Structure formats: structure tokens, C-alpha cells
């Protein structure tokens, strides 16, 4: 079924006289009232092929416990290995922030998406700020969602980087939101280190290997808002089927649900659990394991009644780092599944050449070797 998912058209908006993109702005509030789904939001039917109606059961890792108990860590590594080989997803809890704080993060996210469209439009920036259905980048097969994005550098001395980013996007009256997101990203920084240790142990490589590789990681934090879609049987999707090109995604979803994972040859729902985050393996971590761990194929369905919010912390290596699996992971005559690449090159490919889908890494490698033969090592 996977291979039937067609790639998406990369149709950028037309340019105005100044060479700037002519953006079409969609106002989800009025679209909802009118019960309209414009044709730009209709996805080809292979993308919304039927859900199985079943729920996926993922290993749930207690982060507090594995940090302090080596036996708990070894057991967790074993079950995480199995899940990552099968479909590339597991869940974590007890991550060191309390449920009140998680509610605060979701509340700030709600406030941001309730801003008037004019304010959102003023905060559209390259690689950050608002996006309404990615319509500033594409004209067809748009996702039924709005996003708000900012960058986060790991382990820097700058402890106000997020506050400053929010200030420059939204203004100083959003300082409270900035402080909440700063604390959330700091927590994600710490959590990602434990996860990298867990993944290294699960793969049987030096337990600090991935922690070192990601010590100067440059991650992307994205808040997602999926408005209800009263005509949800129309072919609209919050996110079409895709694998994240990044290393790992740490996902916080509100209580609504809609995320589905492709495993056992079917689409399975992953309903939210309180105080639990989802970890998805992305293409770049798959490459760092020489293809042993699967990049998780997932999609987001929209509800016809309620809005949904989620936060995706996309963890990436520094842009110029070479993505290459550790030698100890490669069996004696084991062939390399993917050639070395720089994360920034894969990222640029997703922004300029090909829309993200279920086969992004393969298309990137094929594109690179056909357009720059010297890179095909
Ligand atoms: C490499 C990237 C492309 C996306 C942003 C980063 C990390 C994940 C990607 C994305 C979220 C995967 C789903 C589709 C996408 C277009 C989206 O819905 O936002 C992707 C991102 C993007 O191009 O903005
Ligand atoms: O909202 C979600 O649950 C997942 C979003 C997602 O897959 C993405 O942004 O890449
Ligand atoms: Fe995703």
C-alpha cells in the first residue's frame, strides 16, 4: 500500500512584480462557517485510504525510571529496539515536567492560533513564524492546518533564545508565551539526550555516540493547529502520509486525537494519553542506523467537530554535520544503505525541490546522484 501513495505536486505560488510569492490567504474560521473545503485542500484518494479502526500499542518508556535504574534502561532499550525496527515509534512519560506545565504550553499555543489573521500574516517569515496551510509555499494539495514555527539550538549559553525568537515574531506582549516555550524547549533538549542514550544502548553502540553527534543540534519547534473540517469526508487531511525527514520528532498532542501510524500494512490510530509524548524516528535517524530503524510513516486526520493542537519538536543535527552510521553498527561486509549527506542538504531538498512524503530520503538520494554525480559516493 505504501508505494501507492503518489508524490505531491510542488506547485509554488506565482510571483508578483517584485518577485515575491503571491500568497492566497485562507481564513479557516469563515471556511468552517460556510462548510466549505476549497479544491486546494483535496488530497488524492490514495492518501486517505481507510483507517483500520484499530489502535496501535506502543512501548511506553518511563524516562525518570530509566535515568536512575540501569536494569530499567536495558529493558526499555530492548522494547524500543523492537518498535523501531517494526515501525519507528514509541511513547515516553515522566519526562520531568508536570501536567500543569503541559497544559500551560497547550494554552499558549491556543492563544497564538486565536490571534487575528492580520496578525498571523504579519508574522510569516522564512522557516519560522506562521503558516496558513503552507499556502505561502504551495498552491495545491494543502494540509488543513496552521503552523507556528521557531528554531532552537541545543546546549547554548543563550538561555533566552526562544523568548527572543517569539519577541521578534510576535512582539514583547508575548513574553509570557516566550517563557513557556523556552522552558518547554529546554525540557525537550534534556529529554532528547536521554532518548539518544536509550537509542544508542538499544543499537549496541557506544552509549554516548548519538548524544555527542547531537550535542550542537539545531532543532525546529512547530506548533500545529488543525481547525475542524465540517466536510471532513471531502478529502481534506491535517497532514498527508509522510515520514519526517528529521532525526527524531518529539510530539505532544492535545486530548483530541487524529494521528495515525502505518504499521502491519494498515493505518492504526494513536490516541493521546495524558502526560505522554510520542517519539517518531525520522529519515535522518534511520540513515544513522543504516536503515535498521524505520522512519515512522504517519498522517493526521481532521475532526469534523473539534479543533486539535499538537507540538512537534523536530530534532536535527547541526546543518553541516555529515549523517553517517557509526562504524560499530555496520556488520563486516554490510553495505551502506544510504550515502553520507549533510542534514542541511536534505532540508533544502524538502523546501525547494520535492514535498515531503513517504519516500523523501530515497528521492533525495536519487536526485542528488543524478544532479551532482560527484556526491553519489
Ligand atoms: C524538513 C522539514 C520539512 C517539514 C519541516 C521540517 C521537519 C518536518 C517536515 C514536515 C512537518 C513533515 C510534514 C509535511 C510538512 C510540509 C508539514 O506539514 O509541515 C513538513 C515540513 C515543512 O516542509 O514545513
Ligand atoms: O499533529 C500531529 O500529531 C503530527 C504532525 C506531524 O506529523 C508533523 O508535523 O510532521
Ligand atoms: Fe510528521
From TrEMBL:
The keyword Oxidoreductase applies. Residues 216-317 form the Fe2OG dioxygenase domain. Pathway: Hormone biosynthesis; Plant hormone biosynthesis; gibberellin biosynthesis. Signal peptide: none annotated. InterPro entries: DIOX_N (IPR026992), IPNS-like_FE2OG_OXY (IPR044861), IPNS-like_sf (IPR027443), Iron_ascorbate_oxido_reductase (IPR050231), Oxoglu/Fe-dep_dioxygenase_dom (IPR005123). Its cofactor is L-ascorbate. Keywords: Iron, Metal-binding, Oxidoreductase. It catalyses: gibberellin A12 + 2 2-oxoglutarate + 3 O2 + H(+) = gibberellin A9 + 2 succinate + 3 CO2 + 2 H2O. One of its GO terms (biological process) is gibberellin biosynthetic process. It comes from the Eukaryota. One of its GO terms (molecular function) is gibberellin 20-oxidase activity. PROSITE patterns: FE2OG_OXY. PANTHER family: 2-OXOGLUTARATE (2OG) AND FE(II)-DEPENDENT OXYGENASE SUPERFAMILY PROTEIN-RELATED. Belongs to the iron/ascorbate-dependent oxidoreductase family. GA20OX subfamily. This is Gibberellin 20 oxidase 2-like. It comes from Cicer arietinum. The gene is LOC113787709.
Amino acid at each position: 500500500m505504501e508505494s501507492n501513495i503518489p508524490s505531491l505536486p510542488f506547485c509554488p505560488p506565482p510571483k508578483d512584480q517584485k518577485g515575491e510569492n503571491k500568497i492566497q490567504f485562507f481564513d479557516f474560521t469563515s471556511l468552517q462557517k460556510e462548510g466549505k473545503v476549497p479544491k486546494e485542500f483535496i488530497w488524492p484518494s490514495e492518501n486517505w485510504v481507510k483507517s483500520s479502526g484499530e489502535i496501535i500499542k506502543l512501548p511506553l518508556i518511563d524516562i525518570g525510571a530509566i535515568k536512575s535504574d540501569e536494569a530499567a534502561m536495558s529493558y526499555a532499550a530492548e522494547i524500543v529496539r523492537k518498535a523501531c525496527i517494526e515501525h519507528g515509534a514509541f511513547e515516553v512519560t515522566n519526562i520531568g515536567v508536570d501536567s500543569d506545565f503541559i497544559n500551560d504550553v497547550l494554552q499558549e499555543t491556543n492563544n497564538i492560533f486565536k490571534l487575528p489573521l492580520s496578525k498571523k500574516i504579519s508574522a510569516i517569515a522564512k522557516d519560522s513564524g506562521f503558516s496558513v496551510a503552507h499556502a505561502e509555499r504551495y498552491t495545491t494539495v494543502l494540509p488543513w492546518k496552521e503552523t507556528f514555527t521557531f528554531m532552537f539550538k541545543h546546549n547554548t549559553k543563550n538561555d533566552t533564545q526562544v523568548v527572543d525568537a517569539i519577541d521578534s515574531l510576535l512582539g514583547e506582549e508575548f513574553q509570557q508565551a516566550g517563557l513557556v516555550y523556552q522552558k518547554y524547549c529546554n525540557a525537550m533538549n534534556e529529554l532528547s539526550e536521554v532518548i539518544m542514550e536509550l537509542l544508542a544502548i538499544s543499537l549496541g553502540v557506544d552509549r554516548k555516540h548519538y548524544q555527542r553527534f547531537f550535542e550542537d543540534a539545531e532543532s525546529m519547534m512547530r506548533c500545529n493547529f488543525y481547525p475542524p473540517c465540517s466536510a471532513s469526508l471531502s478529502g481534506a487531511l491535517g497532514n498527508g502520509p509522510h515520514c519526517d525527514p528529521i532525526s527524531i520528532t518529539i510530539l505532544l498532542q492535545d486530548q483530541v486525537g487524529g494521528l495515525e501510524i502505518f504499521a502491519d500494512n494498515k493505518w492504526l490510530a494513536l490516541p493521546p494519553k495524558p502526560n505522554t509524548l510520542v517519539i517518531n524516528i525520522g529519515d535522518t535517524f534511520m540513515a544513522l542506523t543504516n536503515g535498521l530503524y524505520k522512519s515512522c510513516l504517519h498522517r493526521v486526520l481532521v475532526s469534523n467537530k473539534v479543533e486539535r493542537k499538537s507540538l512537534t519538536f523536530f530534532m536535527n543535527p547541526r546543518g553541516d554535520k555529515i549523517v553517517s552510521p557509526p562504524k560499530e553498527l555496520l556488520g563486516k561486509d554490510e553495505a551502506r544503505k544510504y550515502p553520507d549527506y549533510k542534514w542541511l542538504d536534505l532540508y533544502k531538498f524538502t523546501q525547494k525541490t520535492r514535498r515531503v512524503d513517504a519516500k523523501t530520503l530515497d528521492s533525495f538520494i536519487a536526485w542528488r546522484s543524478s544532479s551532482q554525480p560527484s556526491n553519489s559516493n
